[in-house]
Design brief:
This protein has 3 helices and 10 strands. By secondary structure, it is of the alpha+beta class. The protein has one domain (2-135, 161-167): Cathepsin B, Chain A (Alpha-Beta Complex), CATH 3.90.70. The strands form 4 sheets. A 4-stranded antiparallel sheet has the order 2-1-7-6, with no helix packed on it. The longest helix has 10 residues, at 47-56. The chain is globular. Residues 16, 18-19, 21, 77, 79-80, 84 line the site of zinc ion. Zinc ion binds at residues 16, 18-19, 21, 77, 79-80, 84. This is ubiquitinyl hydrolase 1.
Length: 178
């Protein structure tokens, strides 16, 4: 029941920088834990920035001061038969009906980051972070082989057939310290 509304799937794609082998992994989630500090330690002003950072720098790690550092993504490449540097990207494969986001207000040493982060009441468009389905995937999910999507979803499609726009439903605020 809960998962029907709150669960989504993220797909992470890694490409071996040496031979171009592509590996994808799927992971289900029920909320996204968003960073609210930039790599330079500046706090973000809007949830858009938090989400953009989540998707573009999800390989970053935080040290005990909460400073974020980029680390080189690696792939255990089946063709090169060893670990190799990779490029990495993450997108929603299946966006949830109801998206829960959590702002990461505590750094690794337990210090609270008391900055304000703006968010829209309506019209948070996350289409940009949703993977464009391939024709084969659409047919697999659809369970049919007829061409019910018309011009959308053709092999090599570059157009997103749907828009994923979220409106604010509720907020939970935590006060005080850990
Ligand atoms: Zn390789």
């Amino acid at each position: 029941m809960i998962s029907a509304y709150f669960q989504g799937t993220l797909e992470t794609t890694k490409v071996c920088q040496e031979c171009g082998t592509v590996s994808t992994t799927d992971e289900t989630f029920q909320d996204l834990v968003l960073p609210i500090l930039s790599k330079e330690g500046q706090s973000f002003n809007s949830i858009d920035e938090c989400i953009a950072t989540y998707f573009t720098h999800d390989n970053d790690v935080e040290d005990e001061n909460g400073d974020r550092k980029s680390i080189q993504p690696m792939i255990s490449c089946p063709k090169c038969m060893r670990d190799k540097p990779a490029t990495k990207s993450t997108l929603f494969k299946i966006p949830p009906l109801v998206l829960c986001v959590q702002l990461r207000r505590y750094n690794n040493s337990g210090k609270k980051i008391d900055t304000s982060v703006k968010f829209p009441i309506e019209g948070m468009n996350l289409t940009h972070y949703v993977k464009i389905p391939s024709r084969a995937e659409e047919m697999a999910e659809d369970g049919s082989s007829n061409d019910s999507y018309g011009g959308f979803g053709a092999v090599g499609a570059t157009k997103q057939p749907y828009q994923y726009v979220y409106s604010l439903f509720s907020i939970i605020c935590h006060r005080g310290q850990l």
